[in-house]
Amino acid sequence: MESGVDCTFGIPGDFALPLYAAQEAAGLRTIVCTHEPSAAFAADAYARIRGLGVVMTTYGAGALNMVNPIAAAYAEHSPVLVISGAPALEARKAGFVLHHTVKDFDGQRRIYAEITAATAALNDPATALTELDRVLDTILREQRPGYVEIPRDLTDAPAAPSMYSPGPAGAATDAAAIAEAAAEIAELLARARRCVLFTGIGIARRRLETETIHLAERWGLPVVSSVLGKSVFPESHPNYVGVFVGTVGDDAPRLAFDEADLILAVGVLDTDVNAGFRTYPPPRSKLIALDDTRVRVLHHHYERAPLGDMVRALLARAPASPRPFWTPSPSTPESPTPGPSPESHVTMEGVIASLRTLDSSRYTLVADIGDAWFTALETRAERYLALGFYATMGFAVPGALGAAVADPDRRPLVLVGDGAFQMTGAEIATMAGIGAPATIVVLDNANYKMLEVFDRSRPYYELRPWDYVGYAGALGVPGEMVETRRALETALARAERVNGPYLIHVRLDPHDHAPITRRLRAGTERSASGGSA
Amino acid sequence: MESGVDCTFGIPGDFALPLYAAQEAAGLRTIVCTHEPSAAFAADAYARIRGLGVVMTTYGAGALNMVNPIAAAYAEHSPVLVISGAPALEARKAGFVLHHTVKDFDGQRRIYAEITAATAALNDPATALTELDRVLDTILREQRPGYVEIPRDLTDAPAAPSMYSPGPAGAATDAAAIAEAAAEIAELLARARRCVLFTGIGIARRRLETETIHLAERWGLPVVSSVLGKSVFPESHPNYVGVFVGTVGDDAPRLAFDEADLILAVGVLDTDVNAGFRTYPPPRSKLIALDDTRVRVLHHHYERAPLGDMVRALLARAPASPRPFWTPSPSTPESPTPGPSPESHVTMEGVIASLRTLDSSRYTLVADIGDAWFTALETRAERYLALGFYATMGFAVPGALGAAVADPDRRPLVLVGDGAFQMTGAEIATMAGIGAPATIVVLDNANYKMLEVFDRSRPYYELRPWDYVGYAGALGVPGEMVETRRALETALARAERVNGPYLIHVRLDPHDHAPITRRLRAGTERSASGGSA
Fold first, then answer.
1. Separate counts of helices (H) and strands (E) for chain B
2. Which chain B residue's Cα is nearest to A32?
3. Are B272 and B278 in contact (CB under 8 A)?
4. How confident is the model at residue A249 (pLDDT cuts 50, 70, 90)?
């Protein structure tokens, strides 16, 4: 593929077999997963790193088994192409109801229309390539998933050349609006004494990482990351303050917001998660937000002012010599409690302390949702993947597979709770099969523990205790169980020397919580006792 | 619940927590599965036995992760109620984009509208119970899944009484059409010298098992089962001939069709699968088909003539003294090849021979798709569950969980291939957790072997070999690996004495195929070499 995609993820099934055969003939790599949800998660992770990921599947039983991960990719702006086989057009005329079908032959496409930016049923060789180009262009332009289906009797049909034209390049932009917005914002920046740069995932999606660093340096801005934008701005950069998690995270980012007279948000999604789980929405009275296609300045906004154009326009207006950097107040020194000693039973604080000892430049940090995610938010990372907004469980292990294939030079470091591991942990077998490296840290508290943030502990949060090391062994993956911080650090070092996946089962106290979980839970209990949820 | 449902399957998630708390307060049993697709499969199996199954889930990440199994329930006419939590109405007004959401708050319901018979968003306490009754009534009437969602801030809201009225009972029936059709068919039956009764899944869905037995006995009809109707008519009954699998199955059912001058199909779905995988569609020139809501007689049909009314009308017209039973030709004696000796390496034929030694009245046979299913089709069963039409993989293990809960007196006997087991096999842990009995036979040929029916062997059909016994052990489930027929029979006997689940890993030759698979594959190769697929 011209896009640089060198593999697809999926599971072969009857309606997709001609697609798989065509792929084999084209020399594209086929990565067969154990279950369709995992294949789509792997393609999502690959897309986040490479700029496009492809998942290839059979009709019905296959494609309808990845609605959740593709919905997640839509919500999180990940450019994934779903290619589904479909029943042969000839067979549709035969009068039988065909297996793998539900109501009618367009139903699957309609379902995908609810969770993608563009869909096409490539049922006509005269328009198939034009339609395919339209879907691909929409995926790349909107940075969201798209869907095509191909009847099994048309996979090898000669297709007419694409007539697709993406339309005039300027249609989505308004040069006058961009210029006026940039002038106004530059003026506000110049007048501000304490402006904070608030970074979001849009920077990564539009490949604006370098420009954003220059923006921070030239205007002298401290940088606070949104939850969903974690690691988009280098966490080792001197301007970097931390991840903003409202009143439940580290307090330096919140102090920076409090002290700021202006907040410049770049590509930050306006979600409950980025507002510190609704504990602390950034105040509109000092907020400038460069969104994906528009700009909000305090209480007015500019349309057709795309993120990339705006960032470049602001850079063009930056001071010739960098402005001095203003320094927000540091974190209130916490009394960190990483366990009384490295030999005592490991706590979530101890896990965080251990992870902080690693050289983050060598890893892609991949976190599943729940306590594992809250642990990741307190761990430094140069590359980090998580479905923090859509917040579905089960991403991390298959996501690590996609990340290992997309960037073999960085070992995926997976943080996953026991609940999420029980959903999609089997993908360690796929990693072992292709020799993909990964360190998989299973944080086992035998509970869907994070639900205590929302409601008190309940018997049905309890999870079956699995022997995760035995499980890994049965799938051909080595590993070990640890109960102390010292053992965890030894295991992390050992894992690095293993060529494929290595599993570390961290047995935690069932009552232990990640620090952010604990603070969120305390907040829930306060509001419950105060009567307003 | 009035319906006799005594449990729900699902996974608790934040938007569903008030539903779970309400269920706990109501004393309804909560069965927490490891992954949402499995929860929905378990509810489907429970529904097939009990007449209604319920799956309860959170919004987005939960509900969208069971689109495939609910689509399967729709295609296969299984009455499953999906209850999804949803974001609080109050929170929707707050202006944040909420986690777990995709495009808009009605999108999930629209997706479910594509795969269910009725949907409702219970957003208004004034109409909530009326809407719920409408969905429930539709589920039971159409024997298909339905969907409701409940905002988390309304779960405990006082609701107005239901105003639902199912409409006049006669609206869907035409008494004159029923009478005329019954008279015509009774006349044809009386004249026929060799009529065959062809039984379908509709008999089970409409609870017409007893009436169908009487129909066969009173009219003296040999009974051929459709693939999807397997076990609906008792396989130990003297009138029973076998399952019709076109030219690729046992030939007695096909000979019966050939010799018949009339075929009376009762509740047989008109699908490619029931037509012997399109190898042998029953000829219209001698076919009477009582479908779910209408009747086809040769080349004309009657509308608004529901299955139950028609079966009862035909029974009413049956001869006072049973007609003599005519005997179709027996199967051509196959030279069965269950392996040269019980001590040699077990073959698929050997597996079938071993399963035939079991007392089928003590089991619910649960088959996954692929070679496992083709093996099940050649095994006698008094109760049998499989997604043979929609043909998705991964049903059998979670289906056995649902079957064990719905009917604890029959031990589920699971036939599952290695590919399907790798998708949802983790549900054995849930069985172990609640002590649900099951014998799980993993047919391991290290390959998505059935795909060779559609295309030649390919490198990407190969599956990672797992140590399935080690896997089971890690999840707290005992088991053993067998390689000979004698060892398999010993293991099957041992499994019966275990109170919870027991796993038997049958290691097959990677080139072995179930007999039906082998015949289908030979057919594909013949048509490929003959030039027409």
1. 19, 19
2. B460
3. yes
4. confident
The C-alpha of B138 sits at a distance from chain A's nearest C-alpha, in angstroms, of 16
- Looking at the fold, whether A94 and A232 belong to one and the same domain comes out as no
Residue A333 lies in a domain: no
For B464, the closest of A64, A97, A476 (CB atoms) is A476
Q: Report, as an integer, the average pLDDT of B76-82.
A: 95
Give the per-residue pLDDT at A521: 81
Per the structure, the complete domain to which residue B205 belongs is given by 171-316
pLDDT band at A377 (very low <50, low <70, confident <90, very high): very high
Task: Say if the Cβ atoms of A37 and B37 lie within 8 Å.
Answer: yes
Does pLDDT of A60 surpass 50? yes
Q: How many domains does chain A have?
A: 3
Reply yes or no on whether the pLDDT at B253 is more than 50: yes
Closest-CA distance, B357 to chain A, in angstroms, reads: 31
Whether the CA torsion B137, B154, A394, B504 is positive or negative: it is: negative
Query: The domain that contains B95 carries what CATH number?
Result: 3.40.50.970
Whether residue A38 is predicted with pLDDT greater than 60 in this model: the reply is: yes
**What whole-number distance in Å separates Cα of residue B478 and Cα of residue A215?**
61
CB A267 within 8 Å of CB A291: yes
Q: What is the pTM of this model?
A: 0.94
User: Do B375 and B392 share a domain, yes or no?
Assistant: yes
Mutant choice from A11, A58, A108, A272 vs B, greatest count of B C-beta within 10 A: A272
Mean of the pLDDT values across residues B45-65?
95
Contact residues, A window 235-294, toward B, CB-based 8 Å cutoff: 269-273, 275, 278, 281
Tell which residue, A234, A247, A242, A235, has the closest CA to residue A275. A247
Q: In what order do the strands lie in the sheet with A223-225?
A: A240-243, A223-225, A195-199, A262-266, A287-290, A295-297, A300-302
Q: Which residue has the higher pLDDT, B453 or A458?
A: A458
Locate A504 and state its tokens: 């570390």
CB A461 within 8 A of CB B14: no
Contact A68 B64 (CB under 8 A): yes
What's the token pair of residue B341?
């000796």
Query: Is residue A330's pLDDT more than 90?
Result: no
Per DSSP, helices labelled H in A143-208 are: 175-191, 202-205
Distance, in angstroms, between B166 CA and closest chain A CA? 24
Give the three-class secondary structure for B202. helix
Give the distance from residue B378's alpha carbon to the nearest chain A alpha carbon, in angstroms.
20
- The ipTM value here is 0.93
Contact B223/B199 with Cβ under 8 angstroms?
Answer: yes
Is the CB of A392 less than 8 angstroms away from the CB of B60? yes
**Structural domain contains residue A189:** yes
